[in-house]
Amino acid sequence: MARADCPTCGGSGWKTVERSADGAQPLSTDRPSSSADEPKMVWAVPCDCTVGDRTDRLLTKAHIPERYRDRDFENYDTDLPYDSSPAGELATWRQSLTQAKLCVQRFTEEFPIGSEHGLLLMGPAGVGKTHLAVAALKEIVLRGHSGLFYEYPALLKEIQDSYNPERQATEMSVLEPVVKTEILVLDDVGSSKPSHWALETVGYILGQRYNEHRVTIITTNYLDPEFARTPDMQNSSQIVSSNRRDRRTVDLTKSTIVNRLPSGELMASVREDSLEERVGKRIRSRLYEMCRTVEMTSPDYRKEVRHAGRFRG
Q1: DSSP labels for 260-304?
Q2: Between 152-161 and 171-180, two packed helices, what is the crossing angle to 10 degrees?
Q3: Which residue did the predictor score with more confidence, 77 or 42?
Q4: Three-class DSSP category at 78
């Protein structure tokens, strides 16, 4: 929307610029010029005061939540300020996040050429998966492509709500944009308890997008049992959190979290579901086909630096 007090367009949202091209409209002027006998040729173009509004409209149309509007590649921090972590662990975590950032940036720059496959961003909570996914989506939609952001539980709820006869929305009115958009970000996949209906619905969405060669970026906190380790971790099957009060050892080969007291004493083990257990074998197999897996490893960034006023999704 144009600024009402804009000195250039006077609130109309349009300005005229001189241009020598077919289709320009003549504009008579009384001002002296080197071609005073000929009318000027001008184009009407959007005024600069509407640029910010255009960005807001595109991000709103893409369903990008307000809290993520400022996420981009420049403010994705890979230099994590973990005070109590050994240097080797810090280097491993930073390498993992840096490689993930570069991979998503390359994907974004090449889209839609060479984007036959989407991305599956896997890793613990707080490593910045949503941040990178939104950064990619923002750049792509601002280049003129269609895109949508949905949190996994919110999408399922919106589809369920369409069954309410008092609502005007239908199931297909919700599903069609999700299936047809050029790029879809489906955030936090597996966070809702799986049900037959949910698995069938997500399977339909992914199957349709796969068949139509449409690109999907998926984030999930759930790992595969064989979750690969970075080269620096080949001699160890564990990642140790830097949290001083709750030392946690994550055994990546078994998707198990082992809690330790500050003294180092082992506490009861807690087994986490794998991605396949949360979405089903058929959907996990489909994700192998349609997405490149990007594994991200580090402790929860949000938990570690909340006291410093820094935060990311």
Answers
A1: E-TT--EEEEEEPPPHHHHH-HHHHHHHHHHEEEEE---S-HHHH
A2: 140
A3: 77
A4: coil
Please, where are the H alpha helices in 62-195? 87-110, 129-142, 152-161, 171-180
User: How buried is 201 (Cβ within 10 angstroms: 0-12 exposed, 13-18 middle, 19+ buried)?
Assistant: middle
Q: Does domain 62-222+278-308 have CATH number 3.50.50.60?
A: no
pLDDT, tens only, 63-84: 999 999 999 999 998 876 655 5
Q: Taking each helix axis as running N to C, give the angle between helix 51-61 and helix 129-142, from 0 to 180 degrees, rounded to the nearest 10.
A: 120
Lowest mean pLDDT among 113-127, 143-157, 178-192, 250-264: 250-264
Nearest CA among 84, 117, 100, 92 for reference residue 252? 92
Residue 142 above 50 pLDDT?
yes
Region of residue 200 (phi > 0: left; psi between -120 and 50: alpha; otherwise: beta): alpha
Write down the domain spans for the chain. Answer: 1-53, 62-222+278-308
Closest CA to 201 of 155, 147, 150: 155
| 36-42 contact pairs (CB < 8 A, 24+) | 42/16, 42/17, 42/18
Residue 21: what residue type?
Answer: A
Q: What is the pLDDT of residues 79-129, one digit of tens each?
A: 766 555 566 777 888 899 999 999 999 999 999 987 668 999 999 888 999
User: What tokens were used for 62?
Assistant: 């893409």
Measure the CA dihedral 134/125/285/218, to 10°.
-10
Structure tokens at 71: 């996420």
